[in-house]
Amino acid sequence: MSASYDVVVVGSGPVGTAVARELTDLDPSLQVLVVEAGAVVGEVPGGHVKNIADVAARDAALAALAGGPAALPGGTAARPGTVLVGSADMPNAAISTNVGGMGAHWTAACPRPADDEVPDCVDPAVLDAALTRAEELLAVTTHAFDRAPLTGAVQRVLGELFDRPGRRPVGAMPVAVSVGEDGALHWTGPAVVAGDLWDRPQVTLRTRTLVRRVLLDGDRATGVEVVALATGARDTVAARAVVVAADAFRTPQLLWASGIRPTALGRYLTEHPQVMAASVLDERYVAAGAPVDVDLPRSSAAAPGGGAIVPVSGVSWVPYAADRPFHGQVMQMDASPVPLDPGVTVRPGQVVGLGWFCRKELSPDNRVWFDDTATDEHGLPAIRIDYRLSDADRATIAQATAEIRGAAEALGRPLGEPFLMPAGSSLHYLGTTRMGTSDDGSSVCDPTGRVWGTANLHVGGNNVIPTATACNPTLTAVAFGVLTARALVAQMAPVAEEAHA
């Protein structure tokens, strides 16, 4: 073994970064290695790509991700910075291979789960505290778009439609957005979660390095086997504990390749069926809204084409409730996403995009599985996906379609009919290493992320979320990562105390 660490973290996305940050915040003596198959995008490890103000530089950085030496199987370019996993059942399933993972590209929505979305395997007070810590790490706020014109009108209309006693009211979407000293808004990437993590002497970030196996001694994880993608050189790294937070496809793939195969591994794959619509806000609401002329910070106005956030683009939220199994993410746009009639012009924020994310029924038959007779280009078992909508799912989607149509009509003039995005479009993949309270074959790990039957091995990411949800999963996944880090620190504390005795 060429090196030894206290903890090896596989994956540098929001959860992997949060685990490493919490470990070394709580115990600065811990030596932590973070292994990432991808490269740094831009100048800051884990920085959000939309904070790269130069459009040409950003596009070039994203284009390199789809076909560089660190690109993993799939290979077909999807959204910028991602490649498709490849599945007829889930055609838009995508992965991101770069420092920061999907957190370098995400839309930063961070609603809390509620009602039956909340896992019952974690003490509510413990989960609430972990969610609060996750909001701190991600810099979550509901005030990023306070200056956006017309947002008040949008929320009033939606509130009249959906607010009910016992429901959370329509309001601003909690988003992971930071406000700079100049007032400019910046997307939170894992670089924000990291803070000074990568400058800490006890933390090492090893990029363009693929983990091929978790090493075992009996039922104990003892380290990882890695390969440098640029050279093909292999190495082994010893560790007192391993945390795998690769994503919902590659985390179970690595466990399977390592011979760690709980019954539920890869099963209960779910995402959020996504219904979309758009509307032009009625002029009577525009007249009653805030002034259209907004004093934009120079750094926000200087990034046309989707760079830094423009404050006219308010983001509103229709929260999930148990009696309506979806939640709404409502974005005001600077321009129409579809061609408008000749002579029709709109003000910034007048075009409203609506996305309803549906709760999907859980099923162990929806799964990612791994072919021992076929391997990918790195010698790992090939990824396969089985995924179907149930009758209950189709009923939920029909209900969401009717609701979003009504919302678009209430706001103003709908731009076409609502439509269902292809499976995988939400990028919210859950359940493949789900947590539970007992090793009964329906879960992969306990509420701290420790894999059943394997000491010193934890998993993290959206894939540990065990419930059927509609809300964006990143905040919840980071909260569970916080709990994993705290459990590891407590586990290692006696050993550390003995060493100093």
UniProtKB/TrEMBL annotation:
Keywords: FAD, Flavoprotein, Oxidoreductase
Domain Glucose-methanol-choline oxidoreductase C-terminal: start-end pairs: 366-481
GO terms for MF: flavin adenine dinucleotide binding; oxidoreductase activity, acting on CH-OH group of donors
Domain Glucose-methanol-choline oxidoreductase N-terminal: 202-273
Cofactor(s) listed in the protein's UniProt record: FAD
Pfam family, any one: GMC_oxred_C
Source domain of life: Bacteria
Keyword Metal-binding attached: no
Family (UniProt): Belongs to the GMC oxidoreductase family.
Protein name: Choline dehydrogenase
